[in-house]
Amino acid sequence: MSDLGHVLVLAGGLSYEREVSLRSGRRVSEVLRAAGVDVETRDTDAGLVPSVLADPPDAVFVTLHGGSGEDGAIRSVLELLELPYVGAGPDACRVAFDKPTAKSVVRSVGLRTPDSVTLPKETFHDLGASAVLTRIVERLGLPLFVKPARGGSALGASMVRTAEDLPASMVGCFAYGDTALIERYIDGVEVSVSVVDLGDGPIALPPVEIVADGGAYDYAARYTAGRTEFFAPARLSPETIAACEATAVIAHTALGLRDISRTDLIVDASGECHFLEVNVAPGMTETSLFPMAVESAGRDFGSLCRGLLTVAANRG
């Protein structure tokens, strides 16, 4: 194993998820320091490149959410600087970050994912919103779930129970992105499955079941303590838990991810798992699902983060 010197935690950025990223970065930095790692935490500003060129870290832990943190951009810069980092490479990030593309990839390897329509804002306006939305309801039925094709933390996402609610949901979605993903809503148990790879291949951590206050796991429910109840491991049969774990590992592998990922699923009444989306930079806050899964697996969060940095340093 590499004897880690100092490491860099990247947090902040300029996406809508900046505040969550800062919280994730603080949490990772704290547990790494507790694990005996010399940690520097930095934002992605004009001083970043000169700083790392002057004193290159042994490895970088990326806790940037949304935007350049997950679309491959910052990872491309890290590769230009020849800095090893935790997480997937730029190409895999670009595929995973775009939800319609990720759905196509996982569907091609046999995973279930809700039927959907991807609609850019320009098409929505140019073809006449009313006619297009009417056809979407006829095609997919109700209820529906609308969310930006790129992005996270449920920003711009909403459930649509009636056709009359769809236009407002589309407007809310377009406030956070230029393309909307409209999915058939699958009623069931919402679970999240984290995947880690410390060098021996990807393994799934115990699924975390999500029960949001009011039924909607929105931004407030995700990051406000007490707004959501979590069960780790999920209250599912052993067979269903195994299926969820297998689904997450298959998605992680099919999308070309590495080190860590988090896959969001819905388990329907028959026990079938439906892929919703994957996150290449899972939240690391006090209310985030990845640390919950680590604890449920009986692992120490700080030791795991240190192990991921060691794998990255060895790879670099």
TrEMBL record:
It comes from Sinosporangium siamense. GO terms for cellular component: cytoplasm. Its cofactor is Mg(2+); Mn(2+). Pathway: Cell wall biogenesis; peptidoglycan biosynthesis. It catalyses: 2 D-alanine + ATP = D-alanyl-D-alanine + ADP + phosphate + H(+). It is found in: Cytoplasm. It is an enzyme of class 6 (ligase). This is D-alanine--D-alanine ligase. One of its GO terms (molecular function) is D-alanine-D-alanine ligase activity. SUPFAM superfamilies: Glutathione synthetase ATP-binding domain-like (SSF56059), PreATP-grasp domain (SSF52440). Keywords: ATP-binding, Cell shape, Cell wall biogenesis/degradation, Cytoplasm, Ligase, Magnesium, Manganese, Metal-binding, Nucleotide-binding, Peptidoglycan synthesis. InterPro entries: ATP-grasp (IPR011761), ATP_grasp_subdomain_1 (IPR013815), D_ala_D_ala (IPR005905), Dala_Dala_lig_C (IPR011095), Dala_Dala_lig_N (IPR011127), PreATP-grasp_dom_sf (IPR016185). Coiled coil: none annotated. PANTHER family: D-ALANINE--D-ALANINE LIGASE (PTHR23132), D-ALANINE--D-ALANINE LIGASE B (PTHR23132:SF23). Mg(2+) 2 binds at E277, N279. Residues 103-310 form the ATP-grasp domain. One of its GO terms (biological process) is regulation of cell shape.
